[in-house]
Amino acid sequence: MSAVAATEHAGPTVQALLAAARRRCAGNSAAAGDCALLLALALDVPRAWLLAHAEQRPDDAALGRFETLLRRRLAGEPMAYLRGRQGFWSLELDVTPDVLVPRPETELLVELALACMGECGRLADLGTGSGAIALALASTRPHWQIVATDRSAAALAVADGNAARLGLSVEFRQGDWFAPLAGERFDIIVSNPPYIAAHDTCLEGDGVRREPRAALVAGDDGLADLAAIIAGSAAHLSPGGWLLLEHGADQGPAVRALLASAGFVALATHADLASRPRVTLGRLPCAN
């Protein structure tokens, strides 16, 4: 049976469903704005279809799917998890609650990595999650050799599935940060590691609190994983190689200080499209 029954079906129309759902979302503007997309997901139709078929009456199965999706959204579950997909760079990535939802500001890390190396070279992506950064780079620089690591087997399964579906070449390895990279060196190392302090109130916000905490929180000050990556990176960078790190908007000075202490030069912090300091990079000095 079609998800949209004939107009004599006894259930509510598309228009009435959306109106009722938005009333239920009073006080939750994000959820209210997502009602049309949720209904389109439940009906398996494009969102634009709803406008042209406002008087159609979805069948009982579709009504049940819509109710489930709406309840999950009202409970704070991110839309990306409900859809199972999230756009990043020029890609549509599968996402699950095992990985962070890729965010637009992380595209800055991709842009800067592309500017640091030509058509060929080796790059490591630490804490790859859904594979967003590594796959965006692979889609733009197909001749790069890209290795991506993550401690989570579940996250790597998502990333590997994305690579297979998109036909992109990235080698995924399981382990903490540099552990799977013993004896190897790269021209660039990139990472969007956990950088939120353990007691930061942002962790209570809708969406964020549903994402994997281990991929968000890094000690009391948010700097533990950034410091660990900086400390271990020199052993895995070629002379003149670059380290690029995403971080919190107030962490640029601390990250630059850590990089300077580790012997990096050409330090710079770049702002995202919202003018928030977001990525800091440094270069390992060339051998004398």
TrEMBL record:
Native source species: Immundisolibacter cernigliae
Release factor glutamine methyltransferase N-terminal domain: residues covered: 17-84
EC annotation from Swiss-Prot or TrEMBL: 2.1.1.297
Methyltransferase small domain span: 108-200
GO BP annotation list: methylation
PANTHER family in the record: HEMK METHYLTRANSFERASE (PTHR18895), MTRF1L RELEASE FACTOR GLUTAMINE METHYLTRANSFERASE (PTHR18895:SF74)
General function of this protein: Methylates the class 1 translation termination release factors RF1/PrfA and RF2/PrfB on the glutamine residue of the universally conserved GGQ motif.
Name this protein carries in UniProt: Release factor glutamine methyltransferase
